[in-house]
Amino acid sequence: MRWIARKTDFYKFVYLKCRGFSQWTGEVSVYRSLSHNPFENLAFEDWVYLNADLTNRRILFLWRNEPTT
């Protein structure tokens, strides 16, 4: 399995590209947000949904809100 990591400063996201996941022959991308702002994270999630070709690609987006009490 190969991992390639890249940081994009504008969106503050880490992009990981993975290959060799079980039987899946398409592309798999994992995005982990470094931002704790839910509005930024939801906006990125919406942008991916509207702009990414999801027919032969799986995307996992991991993010969390700011810690609260």
From TrEMBL:
Chain coiled-coil ranges: none
UniProt cross-references to Gene3D superfamilies, sorted A to Z: Bira Bifunctional Protein, Domain 2
GO cellular component, one term: mitochondrion
GO biological process: protein lipoylation
Origin superkingdom: Eukaryota
Organism of derivation: Desmophyllum pertusum
Name of the protein in its database record: Lipoyltransferase 1, mitochondrial
Any GO MF annotation of the entry: lipoyltransferase activity
